[in-house]
Amino acid sequence: MGAGLAGPLLAQGLVRAGFEVALYEREAAIDERSQGYRIHLDPEGVDALRDCLPPDLYDEVVATSGIPGSGVTILSPRLEVVQRIAAPVDGDEGPQHLSVDRVTLRRILLTGIKTGHATFDHYELLADGTVRVHFAGGGSAEADLLVGADGTHSRVRAQLLPDAEVVETGQFLIFGKTPLTPEARSLTPAASLDGFSVVAGADGRFMPLAGHRPRTGEPGYLMWVVGSRQPASAVDGSALRDTAARLVGDWHPDLAALVGLAHPATVHATTVRTAKPVPPWTTGPVTLIGDAVHTMVPAGIGAAVALRDAALLCAQVTSPASDLLDAVHAYEASMLEYGFAAVARSLRAGG
């Protein structure tokens, strides 16, 4: 359940190994303009893609990724460089880090995968050890294994782990993207075109900026996020864009100008949430991957950890050395350890 990133990658790996897989997503269609933000994948995410995808699809991911930047930069509200951290250099074995557009990556991951539009309602454990999924509005499907890949608000998690908590951090984010037109390029800090940068204020406000320049030669865009402790009451994209520009209005004027050049359809607001650690549960024919189990604050690691989940579960399930429940148990034991260690890292980075 869930066709974000981790669900489709798991499906790719299982189909490649000869398993029958059905992938269900509650969204009938997605507005690409609102889902096209740049995401960073570190080595564990890149390795997961390499392990699960057919070689031609992995090559397509690399070919459509962004031109790598040279590092991470902390900027002052006046756009002065405060700190610069050099990016690691790729080796002979291929890229260690990738900057990818989420819509492009998702499209590649869904290639050739059987998908259905359905909203999860509840599951039923059957006497033969399998599971039946019931969909909202009627209909059902049976399987040997149900995987909840349905994100932070996972309905599968709500039934499997009713005591699991996802809590608000008190931070609010407004996301947007600005096409890299000549005007936008002239306003964008050089460090934001050559890697990832964060403008850090002394009052809790912050503004990540990252240019996505596709290797394909397309113009690309600047992803920006305005973070603060102030909730955004607006819902409309244009009003949210105005709110974001106002929040950085006393910083360098180029920042508000860049926000003003964003298309309203790409501007959205969210609260920042984090999952509290959960103890191991009794393994059965239902499990979880990605944000459905270990939601974390944005810190540039969440997507890679979710993809790692998919690759690990795939490797365990397709291993001839154990039966299905043993494989799922081994996955869960490892995932809970590294997954919530990543949650802790994200909290330190986001603090």
TrEMBL record:
Residues 132-317 form the FAD-binding domain. It comes from the Bacteria. It holds the Pfam family FAD_binding_3. InterPro entries: FAD-bd, FAD/NAD-bd_sf. One of its GO terms (molecular function) is monooxygenase activity. The keyword Oxidoreductase applies. Transmembrane segments: none annotated. Keywords: FAD, Flavoprotein, Monooxygenase, Oxidoreductase. This is 2-polyprenyl-6-methoxyphenol hydroxylase-like FAD-dependent oxidoreductase.
